[in-house]
Amino acid sequence: MGIMRHSVFAQDLAGEKAVDISKAVTVSENGIVIPGAVLNRIGTMAATPGDISSPGTVIRIYDAAERWTEEQANAWSAAQPWFSGVNYIPANAINQIEMWSAETFDPQRIDEELAWAEDLGFNTLRVFLSSVVWQRDPCGLKERMSVFLDICKIHGIRPFFVFFDDCWEAESSYGRQPEPKTGVHNSGWVRDPSMSLRKDKESLYKMVESYLTDILTTFGRDDRILMWDLYNEPGGNQLGTLSLPLVKKVFEIARKCLPSQPLTSGIWMLNQAYAPLNSFQLQHSDVISYHCYAPEDVHAAEIKHLQVFNRPMFCTEYMARTKGSTFQTIMPLLKKNNVGAINWGLVDGKTNTKYSWEEVLSDGSEPKLWFHDILHSDGSPYKIEEVETIKRLNERNPRP
């Protein structure tokens, strides 16, 4: 029994909140060593003024190679603030590759934009990584991830990363990325891995294992990271359950890496054809995540449906104005239900996500109503009333 295989939680006998003390203890084949100072601190957390009783502590050890129990997931959640944030990519990047490549990674622009996110009160970000960049420059990618995490920390933000994605362009490669197509939503976003790489499963799985293992053993106990979103919208682009074997393999590998942060993959398509994917994702995620761009009544029903799992919840994509998903209606709903609120888009930029995925404006004219995004490229708000709503809801949102 090695320490990296286990998570250790402690709780005051008279308290209601468990605390992760994994980093403070030593676990060996013969037992567990907990410093006395830790026992005293935890054992008196619920003490009232004048209480002179001896500290009392309950210890619980979990196997990190298994899915978190409901108890463990909820103990983790109880120690966190309510999280709100955005799916983030800097305005000068068209896709994941351009964000993370050595030639185009732009920490100055990122710092400026995250200062705007901090001003809005956001305390997390959902950020897509790139296996293409990792295959070309694994050490460089990890160095840039660490720089990014340092910038986030300065602005009171704990991001989480996405590894794989079934959305948009089927093929991608390292190097100069295409320019945005005029008036086209997310015209340069790429699937990861590329479809051509999925034909040879043996080779694909070797790459996936090397990639996940490298990133998760490097950052799997990094307090700057909130959690790991293993796979975005599996089965997208009519792939359906063809993606299920890869999703299963990704979870299997990630579990073996023993990260201290929770793992998740969000459900996004609620129909019978996707039931096998949804079932696997819900049954193997430590915290429940989902995407919903529907109006308030439909979104509220989905929250109620997912609450039966009795686990922390994150809506990792919402806010599409023309579909009735707005900050004024959805963000209060999410906060009321203690569901993490991660909308799509911060700053209007090369991804063109102010345009709807349902309509192309080939003349590049301004859409009557932006689809995603909160700010113009200079940081000014698209809608003042939205920014006021966001700031009000984030007002008591402490820094993580």
Give the CA-CA distance, first to last residue.
31 Å
Provide the structure class: alpha/beta
Overall radius of gyration: 21 Å
User: How many strands appear in the DSSP assignment?
Assistant: 13
CATH class of the largest domain: Alpha Beta
Largest sheet: 8 strands, parallel
What is the N-to-C succession of helices and strands? EEEEHEHEHHEHHEHEHEHEHEHEH
Number of domains: 2
Content of β-strand: 5-15%
* CATH evolutionary superfamily of the largest domain: Glycosidases
Strand order of the largest sheet: 10-9-8-7-6-13-12-11
Percentage of residues assigned to helices: 25-40%
Write a structural description.
It is a single chain. By secondary structure, this protein is of the alpha/beta class. It folds into 2 domains: 3-64, no CATH class; 76-393, Glycosidases (TIM Barrel, Alpha-Beta Barrel), CATH 3.20.20. It has 12 helices and 13 strands. It has helices spanning 36-43, 70-78, 96-100, 107-120, 131-136, 138-154, 201-219, 244-256, 275-284, 296-306, 327-336, 384-393, and strands at 6-12, 19-20, 26-28, 31-33, 57-63, 84-87, 124-128, 160-165, 228-232, 263-264, 288-291, 313-317, 339-344. An 8-stranded parallel sheet has the order 10-9-8-7-6-13-12-11, covered by helices on one side. Helix 10 (296-306) links the parallel strand 11 and strand 12. Helix 4 (107-120) runs parallel beside helix 6 and helix 11 (327-336) runs parallel beside helix 12. The mean pLDDT is 93.
